[in-house]
Structure formats: C-alpha cells, structure tokens
C-alpha cells in the first residue's frame, strides 16, 4: 500500500488542472471562501496542493503558510507569484501544533480533510491552531447519503465531470476531472479514504466543533464548515 503523498505526487499535474476550475475567481467555491475570510495577520492553508488558495490568502494576510504532503504539488505552488512570500512546508496535517507553528487568525482547508486521517483527530488538530477570535474554514468533498460504493466510482467520476462542466463550461476541464478520478492511482486511493456522506459530515463536524456553521451542497458534492474560536 502506497503512502498518501505518493498518490498525490503521481496525480499532481491532473489535480492542478482540476483544482484550477474550483479555485477560479468566478467559481462559487472561491466566491464563498472570499466572503468567509476574517481580518488578521496570519493564515494557513492545510492541504494546499498547488497553492491557488495561498495566493488568495497572500492578498489579505501578511504571513501565509501552505502545508501539503506532496512535494510535487508544493513545487507547482512555489512557482506562482504572490503579494507576500508564502512559506510552503511538506508535512502532514496531524504534525501541526500550537507549540511548533503558533496560532493563526485563519486556518483553512479545501478539498483535503477527508484524506488527512481520522476526522476527529484532524479537526482537533486544526482547531488547536486557531487563535482566539480566529476562524477555521473547511470545504470538503461529501457524498449524498447512499452514494456509490468505491466499486462504482466510474459513475461518481462522470457525475463530478458534469458538475465541473456546469460550473465552468470548460469541456477539457471536465474531461480532466474524469481522467483524474478514473486514474488507477486515484481509484486505489479512493478505496482507502472515501468522503463522508452529507449526514456524517454534519454529525461529525458538529460533535468536534461545537457551534460550527455548516453549509451543505456549497456546490454538488462539496460541503463547508465555519467555526469561530
């Protein structure tokens, strides 16, 4: 069984094209994220991938950290110009701590938490590095209750491709998303880390983050959570 970073290293270029649509200025996800950013000085994007959202944060914060397990994705991120330099670190989310990393006015993660480990552990770590008065903002992949099992991922891949096309109108981007989700490495990884269902997302986030605000279906297959420290 491969380590998670190996999957993302292998999929880095396809994943970068896929997330380019999600992170575009006209994307509903990007518009929602922009509306959720609190004032402050320090921000961190956990599971930052190719760094698109780090660029968004660098426009608003004076110190930005991007953390990801894939060095290949961080290499892509480091080539993108930003208003202030972003510090990229190749490490696991579960290695973060207030003692090592300090506290952040914004802790953000997009399309990554379900890959990071047991959800209660991941949310506990992310919560621990939010400064008093700061905010934790998460957007993550979810599946409808009773969604396709891993063996039926071809249907899920084509559904996702349709969503990408509906959001972007970009046929090539939709095809890239299908190619990625049917890539042998993605299929292998999916067997190890399936997204939560909508109901599981609401239940587990509400338990781990008392007072959390949850938005179902930010776009189809993606839900969001906002928690204030």
Topology record:
Layout: H1 4-22, H2 28-36, E1 42-46, H3 52-58, E2 63-68, H4 71-78, E3 86-90, H5 98-101, E4 104-110, H6 119-128, E5 130-143, H7 153-168, H8 171-181, H9 184-192, E6 196-197, H10 198-208, E7 213-219, E8 222-228
Parallel strand pairs: 1-2, 1-4, 2-3, 4-5, 5-6
Antiparallel strand pairs: 5-8, 7-8
Bin the strand percentage: 15-25%
Topology as a string of helices (H) and strands (E): HHEHEHEHEHEHHHEHEE
Count up the helices. 10
Helix content: 40-55%
Rg calculated over all Cα atoms: 16 Å
Largest sheet: 8 strands, mixed
Query: How many β-strand runs?
Result: 8
Estimate the global geometry from the Cα principal axes: globular
Q: Overall mean pLDDT score? A: 85
Low-confidence stretches: none
Structural class by SSE content: alpha/beta
Report on this structure:
The mean pLDDT is 85. The protein has helices spanning 4-22, 28-36, 52-58, 71-78, 98-101, 119-128, 153-168, 171-181, 184-192, 198-208, and strands at residues 42-46, 63-68, 86-90, 104-110, 130-143, 196-197, 213-219, 222-228. α1 (4-22) packs antiparallel against α8. With 229 residues, it is of the alpha/beta class. It is built from ten helices and eight strands. β4 (104-110), α6 and β5 (130-143) form a beta-alpha-beta unit. 45% of the residues lie in helices and 23% in strands. The longest helix is centred in the first third of the chain and has 19 residues, at 4-22. Strands 1, 2, 3, 4, 5, 6, 7 and 8 form an eight-stranded mixed beta sheet that branches.
